[in-house]
Amino acid sequence: MPNFTPESRVLDKHLAEVRENVPFAHILSLPSLNRLMNGYAGRSITVISGGPGTGKTTLANQMADELAAQGVPTLFVEREIAPSQLVVKSLSRLSDGRLSVADIPGLTSESKALTTAVDIYRRSVAPLLAYDIEVTTPVEIGALVSDCMVKTNHTPVIFVDYLQILDGDKNQLYHDERLAIRDTMLGLRSIANTYDAHVVGISTVNRTSYGKSSVDLSALGGCSFIEYSADVCLHLSVDGRGEEQAANLASPMRPVTITALKNRHGQTGSVPLVFDTAHATFIER
Questions:
Q1: Is 119 exposed, middle or buried (0-12, 13-18, 19+ CB in 10 A)?
Q2: Which of 90, 146, 163, 271 could form a disulfide with 201 if both were Cys (CB 3.0 to 4.6 A apart)?
Q3: Alpha-carbon distance 229 to 187, whole Å?
Q4: Nearest CA to 273 among 40, 50, 11?
Q5: Which CATH architecture has domain 34-284?
Q6: Do the bridges between strand 281-284 and strand 269-276 make them parallel or antiparallel, or are there none, so unpaired?
Q7: What residues form DSSP beta bridges with 237?
């Protein structure tokens, strides 16, 4: 039975939570985005949305690598791209421009640039980054988080690629995709709160929002519950309109803008970036 509990009885607990809820890691390569996102803090969900070609997965991959290199355990639940392809992106970034994503397949150990990149990845990223292509529900992700905490003694940051293709509950038959997405977001919120974790989820956008240089929260694909559950909603878009946007989309150095459509604990606004598609790297303009 619910009980009335005056704030005077729990104030010290709430103040302690406020003091402890500070960023534990940052996006070092993109300081403007880091300020927009407020770094990584516990009990938070960040959603990254965008249309095709905007680099959502690549940005998440770059963020995940940086976290692992900072000593933060990182789980990457991947349902779209083979982990080996994401490793190729990582190696290209670590080659300091010497190897493009297209260069790496087929290279042998005789390539000094590849050997150097692999050594850096093996030493700085690989020990604390885990890809998982098997888990399909928030319950299974929660079990993965628990296992990670037992083995590392730290709470991981969890990346999910992408939100719309997780199963809300394997034991329930959904006749409406929106209900499955709602249950997925409720499950991820429970993980964030229970484990004091930060979850980064990649979201599709509605087809009617493809190619638009400016969108709002209604563009998030599938269910409005995504915007309600998220603490921060970031949207990636390729700059320009019409022919200009098509030309930018075809450029290997793709001008993009990431916009905070929602920020529960900070500012909204935009950050101009360049997506270096050949080297799977986002840089600030």
A1: exposed
A2: 163
A3: 10
A4: 50
A5: 3-Layer(aba) Sandwich (3.40)
A6: antiparallel
A7: 257
CA distance 141 to 130: 12
Q: How far is CA 241 from the centre of its chain?
A: 26
pLDDT in tens, the chain (285 residues): 888 999 999 999 989 888 887 899 999 999 999 999 889 999 999 999 999 999 999 999 999 999 999 999 999 999 889 999 999 999 999 999 999 999 999 887 789 999 999 999 999 999 999 999 999 899 999 999 999 999 999 999 999 998 988 877 766 766 677 888 899 999 999 999 999 999 999 998 877 666 666 777 877 766 688 889 999 999 999 999 999 999 999 999 999 999 999 999 878 899 999 999 999 999 999
Torsion angle defined by CA atoms of residues 125, 55, 103 and 69, in that order, rounded to the nearest 10 degrees: -10
Q: What is the Cα 202 distance to its own chain's centre?
A: 6
Strands 129-132 and 74-78, how do they pair? parallel
Tally Cβ neighbours within 10 Å of residue 264. 11
CA 254 to chain centre: 20
Tokens of 60: 């998440």
Give residue 94's identity as a one-letter amino acid code: L
Residue 109 CB neighbour total at 10 angstroms: 8
Contact call for residues 78 and 133 (beta carbons, < 8 A): yes
Show Cβ contacts of residue 23 under 8 Å, excluding neighbours closer than 6 positions.
38, 39, 40, 41
CB burial of 163-175 (b: ≥16 within 10 Å; e: otherwise) equals: bbebbbbeeeeee
Residues 6+ apart with CB under 8 A from 210: 51, 52
